[in-house]
Structure formats: C-alpha cells, structure tokens
Amino acid sequence: MKTPAGKECIHFYGDYYRGRNMEECRLLKIYGEQWTRDLCATCPVPEIARANSCQNMKLKVKVARPITAIFQRRVQVDTFCEKTKRNVAEPQIGCGECHDLPFKFEIKE
After folding, report:
1. Which domain holds residue 51?
2. d(CA 92, CA 95)
3. Arithmetic mean of pLDDT, 83-107
4. What is the pLDDT of residues 43-63, one digit of tens each?
5. Which of 18-22, 79-83, 95-99 has the lowest mean pLDDT?
6. Fewer CB near the last or first residue (10 Å), C or N of the chain?
7. Residue 78: which of 97, 92, 91 has the closest Cα?
8. Element (H or E) spanning 60, and its range?
9. Overall pTM surpassing 0.85 (yes/no)
10. In this structure, is residue 1 part of a structural domain?
11. Residue 103, domain member (yes or no)
12. Number of domains the chain is built from
C-alpha cells in the first residue's frame, strides 16, 4: 500500500472505507513504537524491501532522534539473517549467503 510519502510499503496499512481514516505502520506497531505520518518520508524500509526480498532477513525497527534534539524523529533499522544467524551490514544487498548468483553470473575457472 502507498504510504503518505508516496512510497510502496508492505508494512503500511490504511483503512479509508466509508469515511474511515485509520493509518498505521504495522512493523512499528509490532515493536511498540509510536507511528506518525512524517516518519514515512525518511523511512528506509520501503527501499530495503524493494532491493532485497530475502525471507530469512528480519527487520527490527525503532524510532529515534539522531544526535541532537533539533532533528526530526527517524526510523532506524537493524537487520538480522535467521539462516546465517548474524547481523546484516548492508540490508539492500543481504548477508551474501542466502541466495546464490544466477548461473550466467558465475565465474568459471
């Protein structure tokens, strides 16, 4: 579903049926974080989901203010691979072990 920022996100839910106006981020709701519409503008989750659809990678999110209180609140994402049991440094790429390269990209020796 499209977020208020115009990005496609699988975790955003909006119910507008017959005049209802309920919106929520279900990923933030799981971790007990408070969601507001402005968080969608800077949220990295839609880009991560678009770049990497690995089923073994789990996202853990929290809402925080970077460095000082003058900056707006932002969503921070930590990723973990359940197959390799380690943290993922580059969520857009993945851990590098869950998915092999396609045959035509392999280097033959």
Report:
1. 12-98
2. 9
3. 81
4. 999 999 999 888 999 999 999
5. 95-99
6. C
7. 91
8. strand 57-64
9. no
10. no
11. no
12. 1
